[in-house]
Amino acid sequence: MDQDRNCPRRRRRRRHRHRSGEDYISGLPDELLRSILLRLGSARAAARTSVLSRRWRHVSAKLPELVFGNGAPTAPASSFLSVVNGALAAYTATNLETLHIIVPTDGDSSGFNGIPARRVAPWLRFAEERVAGELVLLMPPLRRPPLHEPWPEPEVDWEEYVLELPACERAETIVLRLHHHWWLRLPPAGGVFTALTSLTILFATTKGSEITALVSERCPCLRNLRLCLTLVYASDVSILSDSLRSLSYSVTETRRLEVVTPTLENLFVRTRIDEARFFAPKLERVVWRAAAYNPQRHRFDGVGRRIRLLDLGESFTVTPLMQEFDEVDELILGISTPRVCTVDISGILKKKRILVFFS
């Protein structure tokens, strides 16, 4: 305090800074400003800081991470969409490490008249050009009507619910939680997800041929794949990959599934499949939540006779699948006591651990 009083030059600089509209925050280096904005954990909050300093607006437009929403109920969806659109339009950097868009639950998201896919399409096109890391897009779950009321019959242009998935060549992880009535398509011009190693797509409708093309032709480095989709009509799906390590498959209306993956280690099946063929020499874990296993229609070719985990859940026709393997390190079964169930385990006695759950 005394030093300031005795230093006229320092007092003059302070008066000049006040008159010129400058502030101490504007003098901070960009790296420090980025660190402060990233700690906010929200792109929306970062954008609001521009009122503190003119330079903050410049810095917030080049952040390596953009996070919108946390899933909690908030302002109307239209307001949230405007914030996201504005922030993406103002973004100037060429590389974005993380883009998270978690659309909040809102009254406008109920029924089929919720947010149309066309409102989300520009976000994916932005990700195609900028994201060089992780892309997460989570739509809110649709609110079901009361049990005594049917789903509303929408009067909409169904073209609004077609969502094209562009090839994000530099994205390494993509997580999409959409809506069952959205039709997910690949662009006709092609494109390859060159760097993609992890892909999750939940709750959308598509064609079997689209899944085949996406996984077998356009994701050469994919290691983890999780699908929970509905096919437009019953059809075949082929997953041919030299890099895939983990597959979680729940695609309704799959007529025949072919999986040829020399590196696959983990397999999770949770949907009825009329026919299936799995070629996975390195398979270590199998979780079977599908309908009855039929060795005439469901085949494990080229799979070793010893695996680490076989989880069959509450299935009552599991003996044929258990007999596919000579040794299982861990076997998990679920038995519902009200029903009479007989399971022949005479051929699977070489188990190090057997877990049986009663319900």
Automatic annotation (TrEMBL):
Domain F-box positions: 25-64
Cross-referenced PANTHER family: OS07G0550432 PROTEIN (PTHR34709:SF68), OS10G0396666 PROTEIN (PTHR34709)
InterPro entries the record matches: F-box-like_dom_sf, F-box_dom, FBL15-like, LRR_FXL15/At3g58940/PEG3-like
Protein source organism: Urochloa decumbens
Protein name: F-box domain-containing protein
UniProt domain F-box/LRR-repeat protein 15/At3g58940/PEG3-like LRR: residue ranges: 122-273
